[in-house]
Amino acid sequence: MRAADLGLMVCLECHQLNARLPGERRQRCTRCGARIHLRRPNSIARTWALLVTAALLYLPANLLPIMTVSTFGSGTPDTIMSGVVTLAKHGMLPIAAVVFVASILVPTFKLVGIALLLVSVQRRQKLSAHQRVLLFRFIEWIGRWSMLDIFVIAILVAIVNFGSLARVEAGLGAVAFASVVILTMLAAISFDPRLIWDSYSEEDS
Known about the structure:
Blueprint: E1 8-10, E2 17-19, E3 27-28, E4 35-36, H1 43-63, E5 67-71, E6 74-78, H2 80-89, H3 93-122, H4 129-142, H5 148-159, E7 166-170, H6 172-190, H7 194-204
Antiparallel strand pairs: 1-2, 3-4, 5-6, 5-7
């Protein structure tokens, strides 16, 4: 039995349960006055739009240089993967592994995970509600670690600036990568997890 079956709607701002008023199209929370809906309007469409945009930006994020380290006036721009290879060649395997996981595996998993979640809800794929909830919670939790590369680049650009001796410059790949991270985080936020239980209830019935 769902709250929706009992005519109850939860406010996403203060989490107050409100009775659904028949015929009322624009209902507000009785506690905080925020707009409330039975389900987030156009949740799946918005999530798909954000996810597709993030997937399109994922290619330039990995193909364009993310950072250029110049020493004595000369330097070679590095993509995310070439930076991982350079770190590994210099014997910094733990750092290379962290960068690879945070910048390659995590964004890829988020893109695939959100897409799988959307498809399973829309097309009634054989995933239990428990599996869908675990996947959604893991996507939300792991999303914050994707910004590791951007934080490192921002710190290096601010600190390493010694003119012609040494200089770190951010590339267009960093902008694309930051956009991917932000868009996937927004996609996870725009997805209404209550749709998981709606889909599950329909399958169960």
